[in-house]
Design goal:
Elements (H helix, E strand, L loop, with lengths): L18 E5 L5 E5 L7 H9 L10 E3 L5 H18 L16 H11 L2
Parallel strand pairs: 1-3
Antiparallel strand pairs: 1-2
Helix pairs in contact: 2-3
């Protein structure tokens, strides 16, 4: 294989990017497929109302009120939902949430409208 060839898989730059970067209030960056985030009306509207991205612009959404441990759990839910709604299953397992997180996740669900 040619050493000068750079392979990319989707990326989060430009208007046709496959991924978006979510940044938590404590500065952690999480990359997730954009199509998984449509569960959230807030993220969907943020991406739709944003100016048309130039080729070099990143798809970035910052959350000033959501810490990284909660944002990771939300992204896990987005992926879980995308997986189980894109295929036919006889039964869908429950999405596991630690009881100590439930109150905070309910607040985040209200912010993200999902």
């Amino acid at each position: 294989m040619d050493e000068n060839i750079v392979l990319t898989y989707g990326g989060c730059t430009g208007p046709d990017a496959e991924y978006i970067k979510l940044i938590s209030s404590d500065g952690h960056e999480i990359y997730i497929k954009q199509k998984y985030t449509i569960v959230s009306k807030t993220i969907k509207e943020m991406l739709q109302t944003r100016k048309i991205l130039n080729r070099g612009d990143e798809n970035v959404v910052r959350f000033e009120d959501i810490t990284s441990h909660l944002l990771v759990k939300v992204c896990q839910y987005f992926t879980f939902k995308a997986y189980y709604t894109s295929r036919h299953f006889q039964s869908v397992p429950r999405f596991k949430i630690d009881e100590a997180m439930m109150g905070d996740l309910l607040h985040v669900a209200n912010i993200l409208r999902c």
